[in-house]
Amino acid sequence: xxxxxxxxxxxxxxxxxxxxxxxxxxxxxxxxxxxxxxxxxxxxxxxxxxxxxxxxxxxxxxxxxxxxxxxxxxxxxxxxxxxxxxxxxxxxxxxxxxxxxxxxxxxxxxxxxxxxxxxxxxxxxxxxxxxxxxxxxxxxxxxxxxxxxxxxxxxxxxxxxxxxxxxxxxxxxxxxxxxxxxxxxxxxxxxxxxxxxxxxxxxxxxx
Length: 207
Description:
Elements: H1 2-54, E1 60-69, E2 72-82, E3 87-88, H2 97-100, H3 108-114, H4 123-128, E4 129-130, E5 158-165, E6 168-179, E7 182-193
Parallel strand pairs: 3-4
Antiparallel strand pairs: 1-2, 2-5, 5-6, 6-7
Signal peptide: 1-21
Keywords: Signal
């Protein structure tokens, strides 16, 4: 009877150890995927920044990058917006209705309610308004961006770069430096689950 109990105890211990090993393996795999995702986003943003620096007048750019990782590739969706062209964050209540409704179905009251914090955690608000924005709230968005160098650089300009991959979102504000060896400096960076900061579905046209 004692031998049977000993065998049963050993079996339970082995099962527990196998379960722990399996759990650790799954965690290791998740950590590896997240690491590859972060590295892929960094690579994609750097490539995309080169496109922004070469852009000849575009104020909003969108694209997709396929980044190779061991065993496959990671797809990163990207969008970049020139912050200076947006309406000031403090001027939400002053934007003319005709200009606001040209870009979104959200009302000024709804936008004001979403605009909490210095950089609101809301894609709709961030697309239209910025603490770096200096567009007249009585005017629609201007077209184009002043090109500082013949090569299309945007020295000193602050841009928002939104990168989405595999249910994760990375938001950056970057300032372009005019240095080919260091395209930009990061002003701020935030990482979210896509569910925390989904892509705005209330825009009727991209500014």
